[in-house]
Write a structure and sequence with these properties.
single chain, 79 residues, alpha+beta, 3-stranded antiparallel beta sheet, 3 strands
């Protein structure tokens, strides 16, 4: 697990959703799929039922990086 800088503001899920404009399902899917890394983009609570905290600044950086990727050609291209 990577460690984040000490000045990071860790937000509750609801605040992180409002700040990023992402849906709850997208945020958790990206977490599950490994697009968001523990310690950088999120940190779990102390117990299994504790809430996850989110680093909105790092998530926004990840979104910008995803948008910068070249588009894949569609499979239905006409010849």
């Amino acid at each position: 697990m990577s460690e984040s800088p000490p000045d990071v503001e860790w937000m509750a899920t609801g605040r992180a959703l409002r700040a990023t404009g992402l849906s709850r399902s997208t945020l958790h899917r990206w977490k599950h799929d490994g697009l968001l890394e523990e310690g950088i983009h999120f940190k779990p609570g102390a117990t299994p039922k504790s809430p996850t905290r989110w680093n909105v600044s790092a998530i926004e950086d990840a979104i910008r990086a995803r948008r910068a990727l070249p588009l894949r050609p569609s499979s239905g291209a006409k010849e």
